[in-house]
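Problem 12. The chain below contains 90 residues. Write out its predicted structure in C-alpha cell notation.
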Amino acid sequence: MRTLSFKRHRFPAKVIRYAVWLYFRFTLSFRDIEELLAQRGIEVSYETIRCWTIKFGPQIARNPKRRRPMPSPRWLQHRLKAHVPVARRR
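Solution.
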C-alpha cells in the first residue's frame, strides 16, 4: 500500500483532507465544497476537488479512524455508583 503523499500540490494536506472528508462524510456536491472552502478564504475549483476525491479518496478511506479517548476513571466511578441491582436471588 502506498503512503499518502501530498507533495507537488498547491494546497496544504489539511485542506485536501478536509475537502475529501466533506465529500465522503456528508455527500456534498463538489460545488458545495467549493463554496464552503471559499467561506474559509480558500479558493479552489470544484474540478480540483473532484480530482482530489478520485486520487486521495480510496487512500483516506483505507486509513484507520482515530479512536476516541478512553473515559476518565472519575466518569467510570460515577457510572458504577449509579448501578442498582434489579432483583436479588437468595
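Discussion. Residues 13-81 form one domain. Students who got a different answer should revisit the alignment rule from Section 12.3.
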